[in-house]
Amino acid sequence: AICSYCHGWAGDGAGEGQSSGGAADLRKTPLDRAQLIEVIKCGIPGKAMPHFDEAAYTDKRCYNSTEADMGANKPPLPPGSVLSQREIEALADYLQAKVIGRGAITREECFETLGERVRSCNDYPRAP
User: I want to staple 74 with a disulfide (CB 3.0 to 4.6 A). Which of 28, 40, 64, 70 is the partner?
Assistant: First the structure.
């Protein structure tokens, strides 16, 4: 789903070099599983967060609104691919298990995620 483009490889909202860097810091999000699923599925009206459910606004499944109700506030489709309900739920579970509440990024987490040969991981502190 290319989440890292906006949210960064560590989910901290930094994004990749070409992104605006204005995405939510998922490491600090207060959202619970149901809320994560809703945001991934429906996007955020009036914001850059896209909706990953292709049919999100064909009926009132998202924020009790259709495309006509949303108008210009309808979240965009993602630049990559849409996700199935099962994939959206799996993504929310992954975020809860591996990203949310992790605290500051550590060198070990960087190596675990990006690989031992990534030199920029040395820019992060070692885990306490």
Answer: 70
